[in-house]
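Hi F.,

I've been meaning to write this up properly since the lab meeting, where we talked about keeping a consistent format for the predictions we share between groups. The idea is simple: the sequence comes first, exactly as it goes in, then the structure tokens exactly as they come out, then a line or two of notes. No screenshots and no reformatting. I'm using this chain as the first example so we have something concrete to point to.
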Amino acid sequence: MFQTKKKIIVASGSPRRQQFFSNLGISFEVLNVQKNELYQGQKKNIPARGILGAYDKEERPSLEESPEKYAKRLAMKKGLEALNYLGILQKGAADFFSVFENIVTQQELSFSFEKFSLSSFLQSSEKSIIVTADTIVCLDKEILGKPKSEQEALLMLQKLRGKTHAVITAVSFVDCAENACYVFSDKTEVTFMPWADDILQSYVKTGESLDKAGAYGISGLGSFLASSVQGNLDTVIGLPVAKCVEFLLWNKAIAVL
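Output, unedited:
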């Protein structure tokens, strides 16, 4: 369906995100940070965890940081970590994010994205695109990350039941040849059924909650939790596919066969 024009590196251990690219016939490699190796996306040995590295920890937004900007920052930090592991980043994270406020919003696609230059930090002639993403769950102004225990998972689900919350996925594309980074976010509203505690507890005991933002996976056993989804389901699963494809076509990273 699509022909890959640039090398695409999916810096994520999420099998769901990798499957999106595989389903479209897009060739890609997976970056394994823990072993500092690249694997073909269609083969085995895909890492169990994603490009988190030093950022694989609880990190909270700043006081004036919106959920969208917070998700974008985490996605870009994952891209930074990928560049560090590839050995092509010239300066550290502090310098990299000092230019974050100077991002200019672009309106060149059907959606808004942000672009900033990496020319002071990255010198590479390789025609490759590094893709990273981060998904957060937001109830009102509270961001729910991945629970650390079954008890915390149950508390999160109890907060979400019978209510509507936002799921935001931010995607970062580092174009090494252009020495540029592009980032956007997409938001979907999800409403939960008012499930009883015993049902929520039974779901938590499956173990699926512990690796999911907001303590549930809508593409897995947790699909029954939601009564309605307003927006892109792929965003809830972990990657807004239509926007990613549109960007990669615009960037000439892929072409239609």
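Notes:
The first helix runs from residue 15 to 23.
The chain has a mean pLDDT of 83.

If this format works for you, I'll send the rest the same way.

G.
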